[in-house]
Every structure is written in C-alpha cells, then in structure tokens.
Batch of 2 targets.
Target 1
Amino acid sequence: MLTTVLFDLDGTLLPMDQDEFVAGYFGLLAKKAAPYGYESKRLIDTVWAGTAAMVRNDGSRTNEEAFWRRFAEEYGEERLCDKAIFDEFYANEFAGARSCCGFNPESAELVRACRRDGLRVVLATNPIFPAVATATRIRWAGLEPDDFELVTTYESDRFCKPNPDYYRDILGRIGVPAAECLMVGNDVSEDMTAAQLGMEVFLLTDCLINKERADISVYPRGSFGQLAAYIRRLRQD
C-alpha cells in the first residue's frame, strides 16, 4: 500500500534547466563575495569541491560540516567567520536566481492533492543547500516548507543522492518501510536510486536529466498528469 510520496525539488516540483540555474546562482554568489576578497573562479571551484565533499559524506558529519571543512582547507580556518556572509546571501540575494527557474502550477496542485488524500509527503531534495535556500526554492514552486512532513537540507542530513543511505536515512526518520513509498524525480542517476531499496519510483520527464544515458524504459515516467494517474493506480493496488 502506498502511504508516502517523496518529491525531488529542482527540475521536478520546480522546473529549471540545471546549467542555467547554476550559472545564475554562481554569478550572484560571486558578486556578493567579491567585496570580501573572494576571487570568482577560485570561489566557484571551492563551492564545487565542497559539494563533492557533501556527496562523498559517509554519515560521520552533517553535510554542512563536510562543506565548511572543505572550504577551510582551501581558504584557511580563519575564513570560516565569513560563513555569515554566505548565510546572508542565501537569505537575500539568492532570491535573484528565481529568474532562472520556471513555474508549473501542476506540481503544487499534486502535492496538495496527495495530502488531501491522506498521503504523507516528503521533500527529498539533494541536501546540498542551507534550509533558508531550500525554503526559498520551495516557495518558488508555489508551496511552503510546512507542506512537507520532512525537508532534507545540508544542516540536517549526512548523506546525499545518489547514495542509497540518503533514502535509508529518510525512511528511518519518518518510520516508513520502503515498500510503502514512491520517489518522484527528474534525475535518473540520483532519484531512481531509491528503487534499490524497494521503493516505487516515477521519472518526471519535463526537465529530464540522464547524464549516463541509461535506459529509462524500465521506469514509470511522464508528465504530472501521468504521475497523478500512476499514484491513483498504486493506491488501488
């Protein structure tokens, strides 16, 4: 029986071209940090290195700790006091990246329909952003953080996609077996990993990411309308 739906955010509930979004976001970040002595290329390379550290996280620390440890390796422990500058960026200037995203009212409608039907709903976005930046992107999609029972962020999580432990951790936190869950996402390598744990999966193809050119015919897939029909079928089984 389906009791819980996990939704990815970027490219799923929030339409976007990932490359366009990253370019816009990094441009805003570099502009914010420049007056404090951060050269653009080095800063962006460091953010990517910190992201890689989060993706490799083995659960021994939070993703936030993994990121800032890598940041300190590049810039020195003394620059960790500048974390407040980056926190300020995510609370303010990051909002400018909205112009790099689309909007699909069907995504918010489906989340709310799931809740009305008694399903538990989790926002299973890759936890590489602070909570404030995640909340901002949720609102761009026409939703609120309170629409979800659980939202994964870099402060609260210790694993990242595509590590199956990311999904195991969610299951443990909400106390639901994998067989009762559906993971919805647009990234084949990151989101469909949930199937390894016994979750049902659905590949949303509106903003499809398939970097490894995997055979997607093995996954239920399609638009939000097809997803809604798939959820109805799962509930009837």
Target 2
Amino acid sequence: MAIKIIMLVIFFAIMIIVGIYTRKHATSVGDFVLGGRTVGPWLTAFAYGTTYFSAVVFVGYAGQFGWKYGLSATWIGIGNAILGSLLAWLVLGRRTRIMTHHLKSTTMPDFFGSRYDSRALRIATALITFIFLIPYTASVYNGLSRLFGMAFDIPYEICIIAMAVLTGVYVVLGGYMATAINDFVQGIIMLAGIVAVVTAVLNENGGFMSAVGKLAQFSSDAAPTLGQAGAFTSFFGPDPVNLLGVIVLTSLGTWGLPQMIHKFYAIKDERSIKAGTVISTVFALVIAGGCYFMGGFARLYGHMVMIKEDGSIVYDTIVPNMLSSLSDALIGIVVVLVLSASMSTLASLVMTSSSTLTLDLIKGNIVKEIGEKKQLLIIRILIVFFIILSVVIAFNPPTFIAQLMGISWGALAGSFLAPFIYGLYWKRTSKAAVWASFAIGVGITLSNMFLKYIASPINAGALAMIAGLIVVPVVSLISPGMKKEMVKDIFKCYDEHSAK
C-alpha cells in the first residue's frame, strides 16, 4: 500500500507543478484553448494518444474484446495505430491546421459555423458535443472504479474526488498547454507501464508460447467457428465480422471526435505534423496493441471472472482480475498507468466541453458582447462545473463501459466525421449535407438505444459513420451549394501554404 500511495503522490505533485508553471501561458482565450497554436510535435502527438486511450480501452475494451476474440483482438490495436493515428494525421493533420487557422476557428462548432457559414450549424454542433461527451466521461470513471476496487482498501469515492480536484487544478491554471505537457508525462508512464504489465501477464502464464498453448485449448461458441478449439489463437479469431465493426468504430471514430481533432488546431507548423504523425503512430501501436494483446489472454483467467445471475459476464472485471495477482509495485504501476490515461482524457473532455459552451453557445447567443477576460473566466468556471458533473456520474456509474463508449463515439463521429472530412477537401459540400449527417449520427445512435435493432452499439456507431460518408456527397450533389466566392476564399489557404 505504501508503494502505491508514494507513486500516486509523486504523480499528482508533477501534475500540479506543471499547472503552476504553465499559468503564464494562459492569459488569452487563444492561449488557454489552443496553447497559442505553438505546440510542438511531441506534445501534440502524446496529447492525441493519451486522449485516445483511457481506462475505457485498458479496462473495458481490452477485457471485453480480448474475451470475445482472443489474440485476434490485437488487430483492434493495430487498426487504432494505422487508421486512428497514422491515416488520421496524414489525411486530416495538415489541412485541419491550415483551414482552422485561416478561419480563426478554435473549436469544432466554430469550424462548422465558419466553413458552412451557418450560425445554426455552430449551435447544433455545440449541443451534440456537450450532450454526447457526458456518457464518455462516465465510461472513463467506470473503468477507474473497477481498478481502484482491486488495488486499494480506501473508498473509491475519495480516489475519484482527489483525481477530479487535481485534474481541475492544472487545467484551470494552465489550460491547453498544461494539459499537453501533462499528457506527455502521462504518455511516458503509459508506455513504460503497458510494457511492464504485458511482460508480467505472460511470465505469470509460463511465457508467450506456454500462454498461447493454454489459450488454444479453449473453444468458441461463435457461429463461424462451430465450437472448434483454437479459435482464440487464430489469425482473425472466432468472429471476424464483429471484430471489423470494433476496428472501424475505435479507429475511424477518432476522425470525427472534437477532443481529438482539436489537437491539430493547436500544432505549431507543417513540419511538426510530419514528426507528430510518426510519434503518434508508434505510441498507438505500443499502447493499443499492448492493451488488446494482453486482453487476448483473458480466457486464462476465466475462473476469476464475475458472472451475473443471468449467466452474463461482467466484462469490466476481467482486466482488474487479471492484474490482481501481480506484485504491489506492478499494481502501483498499473494504477498510475490507468490514472494517467484517464486524467488526460478527462482533461481533454472538460476542456472541449467548456470551451465549446463558452465560445459557441454563450458568446453571441446568450450574451451578445463578452470580453476576453470574461470568456476566460467563464471557461474556467465551466471546467469546474463539468468536473463536478463527472464526479457525480462517477459516484453511481453505469455498468457497461463499451456500451457507453459506443453510444458517445457513435453519435459524435457519426455526426461530424463525414462533413468534417468533406469540408476540408471538397468545395461542393453543402449545408444540407451537414444537417443530413447530424440527423444520421444522432438518429441511428438514439433509435438503436431504444429499439436495439443492432445488437451492439459499437456496430451501430460504425454504421452511422459509414452512412454519413455516403450520404454527405449524395445530398451535396442534389442540394444548393455555398456561394462560390465564399468557398474560393476558404480554400485559398491551401494554395497560399503550398506556395510558401
């Protein structure tokens, strides 16, 4: 217990020191929300990665999908690295930075409002962002609740309050720059931690070959494998179709999430984007690949898994139980690892929510004229509000992490992904097409919550994204486009940068 507490105290002390140090860099709205658009490749890449991967991935997804798909769950981590990081940076990084800088956009709603010349779209984007980031916050805390229950004898509520207070302190003090620097520190912890934990799990089962041999003895009840043994060690696993749905949502979904895209707004220059692409991809490959690879051995711990009265498995208990037999030092590393991932994600979520509400809803709508100092004050107050709200949710968190994640990512990425990508590349994209994408993303997510015509909310989210990518160009071709002069002015930024 002393080892775990010492690790936590050192970790929290670093977070606070960074917040105090970066306070001088948060004197304007642009500095507070975007770090003055001067953030380098290492900080941006780690901020992207640590926001991407939280307790949801480490505790929720790794356990659930490792149990369902065995070692083939590692494909999810590889997909996250290639589709969610490498391609996202290549396709979105440069164009996002250039166009948002040209339009002077600081948030996702701000971008939609300026790119499509629509105040209504800006408000709608802000509302969708605010509403569907809440279940994501709940899913982050739910993962922590399972882990703290395994590692500590002190009440989980005290841990949550401590985490929330410390996150609030450094975000309120230093804004985006404090978040980015702390994300870098937390990312280093995550890299070291996942290597240590994967090594420990393999050693506990006699090494890699021995662990694979044990896993090969299990048979799967998934239809494609017909109950044959060895499915959990096969190349594509027992259920490749549903595995593909998970890869699509967890990888392509990042392309439309406001808290992820925001990282491209703040990066310093185009050279930083090239370096950040490589760093972010390697980070994702180690963290996500390591998490899902470790989860792939979940069946070896089947005797420790919690089962409900109806016979269903409580997936969120799998990873904590896998790690419960590790040494105190390793458990301490795991706690700091997951805490790092979760605090970075929480910081990004509350920053996105508070800046969106202030700049895209309150400013110009509820309050017509609002000075810069007052905007900063409101953003900071809303950060505190969202952290308190997240604590309230955390005290009684919903039970199924992956469902919450699927609902949040499905609605956000299903709504924003297609119009954002087409908006960066295609001049013909219309306002009507953006509204159609919003209707599809929110419509599929909400209707499936109640009607459950798609068994998995993850597959529903993947469907919403793919549908948006098809509907946006179709609706754009049959609906009125924007004024040619305005579109020409928006896209001239790319020509100007290419000429430099």
